[in-house]
Structure to design on (367 residues):
């Protein structure tokens, strides 16, 4: 039998000379395939003596293992080289300029959020946030909503089981309003308090003016000697700034909310026709928000003495404000992710709202 060291050197050289996967497969078959050179050498062991057979067999096994390792190493190297070639050929030049027709738009809800923060920020309000998953104390109990309140029914509220307790009263809820943020502000902030709490809320409802997830903003002011006059002045200044009008007719109708007493709904003057809704003048009225003086029970739940402090609160739907201001007829379209809708109703990027620069900078809506 030929010198195995010379044979190994030739085989390793042939493996190293392979330039592609097809060549690699051909050399593999020629060396260790069923009719390969090493396989034929092993078949010839039968003509040797017993001692030679054992000695040569060991050497051939070592040779086969070394060739297999060399082939595997070469295969990995070729695969990496081919991948690098593909990556170089298929790369995308991310430095290309954005085409105007694919330019993104700011969603109307995001725009209204900025406008609300700008207006109330100018009045001295701070933005407060809270968790979307709430316990029943902050979402209901602390807001003077007893166990039999209609808002706590299963058909209106999304409940989440508490794995640590089988008691239904210990289950969590996906918050039905941003009012729990008011309670958390009372528990954690020093007095006096002046905050707004914008954010997502969730209820089991779906039609042209309701969706399971929607956006609200609530306001809270707590101090000594706060009255309804402060509430009315604050909201009047807001609607004037928001609708960008010098004067807006407003009225307050008595209402009921468990967390305020007295409670009211605020209407603004408008003119309704078959194809148009004009804010600010006319003989019609449009309900826009709910408000009232914070109920003493709610102040106590937040750790505040109602004999020393009092305050007012209000809440309104951000999505509904967007519908009114920008003439959007159906709330459901807000969440359908239709880029054509967003291109029509959206705003240009970097269009920030401020009371000094204007609520609709850079031309406002992209419509």
């Amino acid at each position: 039998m030929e010198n195995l060291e010379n044979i190994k050197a030739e085989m390793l050289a042939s493996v190293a000379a392979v330039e592609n996967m097809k060549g690699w497969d051909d050399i593999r078959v020629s060396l260790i395939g069923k009719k390969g050179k090493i396989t034929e050498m092993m078949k010839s062991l039968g003509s040797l003596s017993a001692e030679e057979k054992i000695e040569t067999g060991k050497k051939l096994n070592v040779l086969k293992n070394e060739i297999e390792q060399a082939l595997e190493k070469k295969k990995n190297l070729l695969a990496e080289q081919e991948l690098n070639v593909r990556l170089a050929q298929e790369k995308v030049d991310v430095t290309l300029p954005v085409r105007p027709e694919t330019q993104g738009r700011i969603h109307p809800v995001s725009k209204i959020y900025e406008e609300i923060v700008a207006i109330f920020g100018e009045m001295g309000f701070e933005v407060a946030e809270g968790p979307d998953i709430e316990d029943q104390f902050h979402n209901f109990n602390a807001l003077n909503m007893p166990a039999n309140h209609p808002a706590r029914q299963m058909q209106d509220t999304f409940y989440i089981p508490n794995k640590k307790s089988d008691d239904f009263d210990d289950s969590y809820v996906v918050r039905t309003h941003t009012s729990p943020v008011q309670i958390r502000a009372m528990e954690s902030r020093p007095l006096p308090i002046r905050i707004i709490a914008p954010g997502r809320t969730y209820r089991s409802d779906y039609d042209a003016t309701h969706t399971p997830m929607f956006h609200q903003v609530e306001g809270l002011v707590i101090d000594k000697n706060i009255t309804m006059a402060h509430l009315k002045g604050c909201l009047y200044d807001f609607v004037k700034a928001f609708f960008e009008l010098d004067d807006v007719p407003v009225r307050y109708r008595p209402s009921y909310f468990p967390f305020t007493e007295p409670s009211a709904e605020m209407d603004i003057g408008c003119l309704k026709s078959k194809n148009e809704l004009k804010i600010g003048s006319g003989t019609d009225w449009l309900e826009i928000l709910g408000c009232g003086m914070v109920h003493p029970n709610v102040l106590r739940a937040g750790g505040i003495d109602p004999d020393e402090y009092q305050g007012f609160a209000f809440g309104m739907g951000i999505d509904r404000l967007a519908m009114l201001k920008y003439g959007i007829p159906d709330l459901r379209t807000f969440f359908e992710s239709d880029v054509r809708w967003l291109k029509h109703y959206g705003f240009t990027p970097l269009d920030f709202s401020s009371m000094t620069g204007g609520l609709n900078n850079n031309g406002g809506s992209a419509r």
